[in-house]
Amino acid sequence: MNNPLDQKVLDYLKSSQGSTAWAMTGAVGADRKEVSKACQRLKRKGLVKTCWFQKSFWKAVAA
């Protein structure tokens, strides 16, 4: 992974049961907009997904 923020977001989501981009801001040290972009990049790679009940809630895909 060539973006350090993407790795931080992925690591955070793997260590939790999921989160919103806003809630991850403190844990990964970036603003909500950048965290959201990282989530979108990870989604395109198939590494994270949104929950069926709340599209702003992100979860890591089980490997």
UniProtKB/TrEMBL annotation:
InterPro entries: WH-like_DNA-bd_sf, WH_DNA-bd_sf. SUPFAM superfamilies: Winged helix' DNA-binding domain. This is MarR family transcriptional regulator. It comes from the Bacteria. It comes from Stutzerimonas stutzeri (Pseudomonas stutzeri).
